[in-house]
Amino acid sequence: MDSHKKFWLFVLLSACASVAVVVTLGSLFWRQFSPAEQHQMLEMVHRHMVYIVAIIAMFFGGWIVWLDAVLYTYVLPTVQIADETLLILTVNPGHRIKIDASRDMKRLADLINEGADRYEAMARSVEERVKEAREALEFERNILASVIEHLPEGLVICNTAGDIVLYNQKAQRLLTVREPLDHTRSIESLSGPFLGLGRHIGSVIAPEKIDAAISEITRKWNDGKEPVAFFSIQGAADNVLSVEMMPILARRDHIVGYILTCHDVMESVSLEARKTAIQLFSVFRNDLDRLKTSVEALLNVCRTAANHKSDLVHAIEANVSRIDGLIESTFREYAEFPDVCPITLSTESRPEFYDFDLFNRPEPGIDIGNQLLVNLVYTVFDTETTGLNPTSDEIISIGAVRIVNGKIVQDDLFSMLIDPKREVSEASIRVHGIRPEMLKGQPTIDAALPHFQRYAENTVLVGHNVAFDMRMFQVKEPLTGIRFTQPVLDTMFLSAILHPAHRYHSIEAISNRLGICVRGRHTALGDAMATAEIFLKFLPLLARMNIFTLNDAIEASKKSDYAKVRY
């Protein structure tokens, strides 16, 4: 219940209690009068009823006006100051309190803002020192990222639950593929399996092969043999991959994860063939050089024995030149591949292909509703549509980001335009800026929605005013056969719970309170990114309200007035 309702409920209950007391005292006092006196008083009340009613109405009217002034100059500002002070102390040190209230409330806000200035200066000083300390760690991180990025094999590391902790670009190329969504579309989008941090290894490698490999590793471990398993799979580009799997040991007897290295069988064969060719040419080149020297000596003898070059001499010279050129070009062709790739250490940011904190995620088996919010994986998404009527309008864009281990995975984004097969109104174009010519040739909703479902599988969905987006998906169920059954959280509901004294809970209003810079407003991906940042800022605030688990958040959301809205 918000602060307005709480206040007026308190007033109503207080008024009822006061009336009850007055009626009780009046009844006792009334009994002290004689019947004649009671009759006389009733006649006086009847004669002056208009004045009495007017006085009572004026009293209650003035009382209500006074209470309303107290509400907006003292009560609500007090709640707002408390909420915004919490923002300053937790998620946005740069936030400052701005209220329209009584002089005392404004003075209190000014004092808090002055203290916030000092707190921010101290926090900035500490942050600068921490930043200096992190530079050395960042250099080591950059070395690790560079080595992983340039490994010739595809590398994937997962924890014991199968969640991917690390992978490199080679693994991404071997295990995922870009291809048209169907044969009628020329636009390309990632339609193969998804490889990303926090995703299950079973999304790119058949779970039965993983289970068989783990069983083999366990058997060899118990037999005292080297715990390694080999198997082959079909890559995303229909190539044959050889996979080697071995355990990661935290202690001598405790497995915390597994390393999988992937090789393209044909690439390996080609590499060995090239190496063998170089070795053969290195041997044969010496013999060819000696043959060339002998032929050149024969030519010199022919030149000295004849005054002019014969046709035979011309032919020999031409063949010697051709052989020499053939040897050089052939050797150069087979030698033009690096045995060792140079590694470049750059200060620029690299893709986030690893997060070792994922080793500490809770084991599977815990009901998702009872898991802590900070431990869950989220797909934060938004849609752009041709209008605001789910039954008649169409989705023209879907954008999404993933939150894993409390961080936005910047290299695992989803952004797709969708051909609505209908006109797009100028009113909607003014909002999202997507023109009809941008949608021609793009996938239709029946091709795009299954792709988004694969992207979001095994995650909690998060959106802003997400009931509208979910209704748009629901309307398309008969066409696509796609139904989203995972839990859903709405940042608009959560904002109303966390900041009940604030009237506005739009993305812009919340971002201003939390100090979030919104980029690409009213684009699906831009709004999804802003919503993800808002949600991450909400997590510590929810924890302060004893909202720790997914079930806690869902139950709290149901109490919001926005939960009553239906599309």
From TrEMBL:
SMART domains in the record: EXOIII
Its Gene Ontology biological processes? DNA replication proofreading
In terms of domain of life, where is this protein from? Bacteria
Tell me where in this chain the Exonuclease domain is found: 377-544
Q: Which keywords are on file for this protein?
A: Coiled coil, Membrane, Transmembrane, Transmembrane helix
Q: Which residues cross the membrane?
A: 6-30, 50-75
What the entry lists under InterPro entries is as follows: DnaQ, PAS-like_dom_sf, Ribonucl_H, RNaseH-like_sf, RNaseH_sf
| GO molecular function annotation | 3'-5' exonuclease activity; DNA binding; DNA-directed DNA polymerase activity
What does the entry list under GO cellular component? cytosol
Gene3D superfamilies per the UniProt record, alphabetical? PAS domain, Ribonuclease H-like superfamily/Ribonuclease H
Coiled-coil-forming residues are 116-143
PANTHER family assigned to the protein according to its UniProt record, in alphabetical order? DNA POLYMERASE III SUBUNIT EPSILON
Quaternary arrangement and interactors, per the entry? DNA polymerase III contains a core (composed of alpha, epsilon and theta chains) that associates with a tau subunit. This core dimerizes to form the POLIII' complex. PolIII' associates with the gamma complex (composed of gamma, delta, delta', psi and chi chains) and with the beta chain to form the complete DNA polymerase III complex.
**NCBIfam families documented for this protein:** dnaq
**What protein does this entry describe?**
PAS domain-containing protein
